[in-house]
Amino acid sequence: MTIDFKNNRIYHFDKDLNLTEHKPISTEFKEIEVLSNGKILVVENYYEYENGDNSNLYCINQQMEIEWFLPYPYENHNSMDNYVGFTTNGDKVFANTFSCYRVEIDIEKGEIKNVQFTK
Questions:
Q1: Which of 79, 83, 108, 109 is deepest in the core (most CB within 10 A)?
Q2: Running along the chain, 119 residues long, what does each successive block of 10 average in pLDDT?
Q3: CATH code for position 81
Q4: What's the predicted TM-score (pTM) here?
C-alpha cells in the first residue's frame, strides 16, 4: 500500500497485482493511519467537506472500499462541525470535533463508544 498525500491518493496492489486506489470524497486527506487490524482510518479536511449526512472520518479496507463513516456525537450537527483529527493509543482510537467533542471509536463497528465535551 502506498499513501500519497501530495496527490491525495491511497494505492494498493492485491496479490494478483491489480491496482486499486482511493481518492478523497470531498476535500483532501488530513490524516491517514493503518490500524492494527489492517484497516485504514481516514479523516478529510473538515473545512467545506460535503457528503450528505456522512462525516469526514471513515474507515476503508484493503480493497479500498469504505466500511463505515463515524457518526457524529450528537444529532444536530452543521457542516462546519466535522472531525478535525484523531489519535491512537494502542488499540484505542479517539477523534475530536471542531466544537470540542472527543469520542472514543469502536474501530470494528464504526461506532462511538464514549463521548466527552472538552471545552
A1: 83
A2: 92 90 96 92 94 94 95 74 91 93 95 93
A3: 2.40.10.480
A4: 0.92
Q: How many C-beta atoms surround the C-beta of residue 29 within 10 A?
A: 19
Residue 109, number of CB atoms within 10 A of its CB: 11
Shortest CA distance to 10 belongs to which of 50, 64, 70, 58? 64
Longest dimension (CA), the chain: 49
d(CA 9, CA 2): 8
Count how many domains the chain has.
Answer: 1
E strand map for 26-91: 29-34, 40-44, 57-60, 66-69, 83-89
Give the range of the structural domain holding residue 54, as residue numbers without chain letter.
24-117
